[in-house]
Design brief:
Elements: H1 5-20, H2 24-44, H3 47-80, H4 83-117, H5 124-153, E1 158-161, E2 166-169, H6 172-176, H7 179-210, H8 214-249, H9 251-258, E3 270-277, E4 282-289, H10 292-298, H11 308-335, H12 341-350, H13 354-358, H14 372-380, H15 386-416, H16 423-431, H17 435-449, E5 454-456, E6 460-461, H18 471-502, H19 508-524
Helix pairs in contact: 1-3, 1-18, 2-3, 2-5, 2-7, 3-4, 3-18, 4-5, 5-7, 7-8, 7-16, 7-17, 8-15, 11-12, 11-14, 15-17
Length: about 525
């Protein structure tokens, strides 16, 4: 692949976005887990829960600070690397980002300070309220970001203005309640909850293997396994909702994920595994599960899901319609107020396909001069990379189901086996710590790579969105980002490992004193409750 201006811009933004998303899921989930732990502390008054809240809150704080640093850089890239995109759709895309910055982020940042420095200055209940406001702010911030991204996937509540040559918002509430954005939000935050649950479970498992901080570790596993099980089940259910949404908002993406070249008779089957072949336009050695794709994609057994070949043919027709819209647009641009009403009517009739005509800009300066061969090539460009999407989706789903199994097992042992965990299970808990990050990154790859060749689906091709920068500028800034983010990653890992190895160092005397009294009560009453000290099997 030859790396030109657009490809390098995409590579730089992809690296920035995917690196930033290493921090986001842990922030989303850990903020909720910390708030739950502090809730238990306020309800019971047991200092062990306060110690747990402070310990996991410290790890949350480290992750939060570094996540903010990478997120700010990413937002600046819209203006630097994607200036035409910002000009073309900035009226719509900029609104949720502005709301996120002014409302959600400042709310989150303000209460994070109160959370860390208000322990001895606020009452128990007031501090608990702050903890929940931090969690709400973190998740609220994600909502507005995902509303902006959801609009790129399914642009509603906006239309192209031929007089200003830009997209303009027509209905703010359609943008906010965009079905794709809402499905992405609940799916993404649930994935973040799973990530945090696996992280807490893994670190706690390591403590039990080392025989350190066992009381904190057992309680943390109890919270993480219950929370993680609910979240993992939610991810699967809400992922199904995303599939249903894609069946009528992003049909090409769904067909590519399935490696579905030809339209199947209803109800479509789900391809479990196979080897997609883009050259032969078929999926070799495919193993199908009958009816499943029809149920996921259409919620019925009677509706078909169009295949890639059919969608390419539809794209060809839309390109022809888009050329008509483009021709009318050029007339409007030249004649302005003197434009005949019939020309404006022609534009309005075909305006929804204008973006498809812009796909031809890759091959010809004026889409009206395109040949049928070029139109066919542009229609083929609407097919994203089938192989990478096919496998990324299946690995992600496989990991998702594995999290359900892991959380279910630990929840069972925590609830019904006296908090005793076999050493093999504890080792597994440590080993799988990176897995939810892999799944989350694959999920974003499917969402964003599956949208190509569009920056805004059906509206603005990626090839037209980039700034007019030199290759040298991009290579220098790309190298700078790689170096900067590598340093940040080393700092993040170093701080995390430092504080994990250090363990819960706050409120140690008070907690140890309470634990001694608690252990004495258990011995006195021959108790073997869920939090009684038990050796690992």
């Amino acid at each position: 692949m030859e790396f030109g201006l657009v490809e390098l811009s995409r590579l730089q933004f992809a690296m920035t976005a995917m690196y930033h998303f290493l921090f986001v899921p842990l922030t989303l989930g850990l903020s909720i887990i910390v708030a739950i732990m502090e809730t238990v502390y306020v309800m019971t008054g047991r200092p062990i829960w306060r110690q747990m809240t402070k310990f996991w809150g410290t790890l949350f704080g480290i992750n939060f600070v570094l996540g903010v640093a990478t997120g700010i850089t990413m937002e600046f890239q819209f203006g630097m690397n994607w200036s035409y995109y910002s000009h073309y759709v900035g009226d719509i895309f900029g609104a949720p980002l502005a709301i996120e910055g002014l409302m959600a982020f400042f709310m989150e940042a303000t209460f994070v300070g109160l959370f860390f420095f208000g322990w001895d200055k606020l009452s128990k209940v007031a501090h608990l309220v702050v903890a929940w406001l931090v969690a709400i702010g973190s998740n609220f911030s994600a909502l507005w970001i995902l509303i902006a991204n959801g609009w790129m996937q399914h642009p509603v509540g906006a239309e192209f203005n031929p007089d200003t040559m830009r997209m303009e918002m027509t209905n703010f509430f359609e943008v906010v309640f965009n079905e794709v954005a809402q499905a992405k939000f609940v799916h993404t935050v649930s994935a973040g909850y799973v990530t945090a649950a696996v992280f807490v479970l893994g670190v706690s498992s390591w403590y039990l293997l080392k025989g350190r901080h066992t009381e904190l570790a057992r309680r943390s596993i109890a919270i993480a396994s219950a929370f993680g099980l609910a979240a993992a089940l939610s991810v699967v259910v809400l992922g199904d909702e995303s599939g249903y949404s894609a069946s009528h908002t992003q049909k090409m993406k769904l067909a590519a994920i399935e490696g579905m070249w030809e339209t199947q008779d209803a109800p479509a089957s789900f391809t479990l595994v196979g080897i997609p072949d883009s050259d032969a336009r078929e999926t070799h050695y495919a193993i199908h599960i009958p009816y499943v794709m029809g149920l996921i994609g259409t919620r019925s057994l009677t509706q078909e899901i169009p295949g890639i070949d059919k969608l390419v043919a539809e794209a060809n027709e839309r390109i022809h319609s888009g050329i008509t819209a483009y021709d009318a647009l050029m007339t409007i641009r030249e004649q302005r107020d003197a434009t005949p009403a019939s020309v404006r009517a022609t534009f309005e009739e075909n305006s929804e396909n204008l973006g498809f005509a812009l796909l031809l800009k890759r091959y010809v300066d004026d889409p009206r001069q395109a040949t049928e061969e070029q139109i066919a090539m542009a229609a083929d460009d609407t097919v994203p990379g089938v192989g990478p999407l096919f496998w990324a989706f299946r690995i992600m789903v496989g990991l998702g189901f594995s999290f359900i199994a892991v959380m279910l097992y630990f929840f069972y042992r925590a609830s019904f086996r006296g908090m005793r965990f076999p050493r093999w299970a504890l080792r597994l808990g440590v080993v799988i710590i990176p897995a939810p990050w892999i799944a989350a990154e694959l999920g974003w790859f499917v969402a964003e790579f599956g949208r190509q060749p569009w920056t805004v689906d059906g509206v603005l091709p990626t090839a037209l969105s980039a700034s007019n920068l030199s290759i040298t500028d991009l290579l220098i800034t790309l190298a700078g980002f790689v170096i900067f983010y590598t340093v940040l990653f080393i700092v993040e890992m170093g701080l995390m490992l430092k504080y994990i190895k250090k363990g819960p160092y706050m409120d140690v005397e008070e907690t140890d004193s309470w634990m001694e009294r608690h252990a004495h009560r258990l011995r006195t009453h021959d108790g073997k409750g869920p939090f009684a000290a038990e050796p690992a099997e």
